[in-house]
Amino acid sequence: MTSENTTPTRRRYAVTGLGHRSSMYVSAILGEHADVAELVAFCEPNPTRLAAYTAIAAAAGAGDIPGHTPDALEQMIREQRVDTVIITTPDHTHAQLVDRALRAGADVVVEKPLTISAEGCRMINTAVEETGRNVVMTFNYRYAPRNSELKRVIASGEIGEVTSVHFEWVLDTVHGADYFRRWHREKRNSGGLLIHKSSHHFDLVNWWIGDAPERVYARGGLKFYGDTSVVAREMAAADAAAGLPPRPARGTGSADGTRGWEGRAGDRWSLDLRADERLAELYLEAEHHDGYIRDQDVFSPGITIEDNLALLVDYRRGATLTYSLNAHGPWEGYRVTVNGTKGRAELEVVERGSIALDERGRSILDPSATPGAWEGDDVRPFGDTLTVQKHWERARRVDIPAGIGGHGGGDAILLQDVFRAPVDGPRPDPLGRPAGYVDGVRAVAVGISGNASLVSGLPVIVDELNLGIDITVPRPGALPDAAVRPTAHTAPTALTPVTPTLPDAARSPEQVTS
Questions:
Q1: Helix, strand, coil shares, percent, the chain, to 5
Q2: Structural domain boundaries enclosing 186
Q3: Where is the composition biased (Low complexity) (predicted)?
Q4: Average pLDDT of span 375-387
């Protein structure tokens, strides 16, 4: 029998927003981390999605988990004695839910992005200051071994002081297109890809170089998807010449799921929800409650986000970032180049080198979340390489440890920090990977500034956004308090640790929320 002194304390968790992404947290609580975490409540406005997750919990032996609607969030926290609320709802709802959960007495774990606006940043910062409670950002890409190794190289001083970073991210025509089917396609919901997707990337750069953005200039537009693009016009002309009707507003068509849309076979741009049992359960069978259509046509009207983006970001200690995102590439992955005063580091990642479709015209939506789903090829093989070259020396390859699970191996390690930190105490991490809400503010600061720059055509000074908190990162060793890393259950710190010299030291679902 386990003694009282060794019995782990189980924290009580509620999950808010029961889309596809939330299954990673639900599975972790019910499975690997069940000895330290207890699922005590769901918060979800859609009865069908609530029922789906209630059934999952019951099948795992968790009993009948009570369900609540968002308007009863405070009541749920009080009645179920919730310690931590996990928020995986659409981006535009994050700020208010974080604010309400903190004020009701719970800590918060929130999916990226933290919020989509400067007002949201101010709201969350005020709530943290007034409640003393903590907000943890789940920046899983920090935990991917390839990204951690680049952090280690930079922080070791091997390439000297960073002078510039070039970051190119390519989303392919399966994963990239999916953002233009769902709620993300409207900027009022997601902040656009500059916030929803790129906050991952901006956080990586902020963390890699230990600095905060100062000024942002952005250009971009909707050039591939939507009803007015060259691609859409060419397709419409070809359809008209063939005597075909206009494209339907959604992808789900034939009852057997073998055709992308009614009356036409093999449309690679459509998503038939009936071909995926999980998507059908969470969205197709649930849409009569709230009208949310998960499979909208990517060439339909109403898209207000960009699919091509380029940014120039000045950092406070002098480094410059050039960043680009393309959401209609033939392959998926990213390239990062970090230039320093002593040399250069180059990271190249291929998450899917080409798109292979099955007999139903389907492919894995998010290759970064499903390792092993794509076998690769000889020309553009799956994998990652990190190359470092100092001035006057030959280049060398840096060994990258194998990752386990989704997002480059980051999800599994992230979940250890999210759920195990309360049991083991605040473990020091020489890489400073755990992220607090200030890291979330730094990441969205680039996207919020970029969106403002897209409108004005001018550079935007980040401090003029009035984010409600000073996001400056002190130089290494400037403040002792910076050594205290934020965890899910310690007091928040406005500073992310920067370590000048470092010692050698389950399947994730698609990134979709309710």
A1: 35, 20, 45
A2: 141-224+305-403+434-465
A3: 490-506
A4: 84
